[in-house]
Design goal:
The protein contains no helices and 6 strands. With 76 residues, it is an all-beta fold. The chain has one domain. The strands form 2 sheets. The protein has a 4-stranded antiparallel beta sheet with strand order 3-4-5-6, with no helix packed on it. Strands 1-2 form a two-stranded antiparallel ribbon.
């Protein structure tokens, strides 16, 4: 099995992939902020969470967390 280290960007209207955003190894759980400006990925094999700016499609922060995170819960 090939484990990705990116999040795929999808065009929901055209139902197609329009790109990838590199994050940590094996992004499992993701969460979107209520204003849709930030996307958070739990990177299971990197022991980190990536914070993505959805407007620029860039990782703006990587946070070290415990071993093998698999879920993200966003609480404002």
């Amino acid at each position: 099995m090939r484990r990705r280290a990116s999040v795929r960007v999808i065009d929901a209207v055209g139902d197609s992939s329009v790109g990838r955003i590199p994050v940590g190894l094996r992004p499992w759980g993701i969460a979107l902020s209520p204003d849709a400006r930030r996307l958070y990925t739990a990177n299971g094999k990197s022991n980190s969470v990536s914070v993505i700016d959805t407007g620029t499609r860039q990782v703006v922060a990587t946070v070290a967390v415990g071993q093998r995170p698999c879920e993200v819960l966003y609480v404002p």
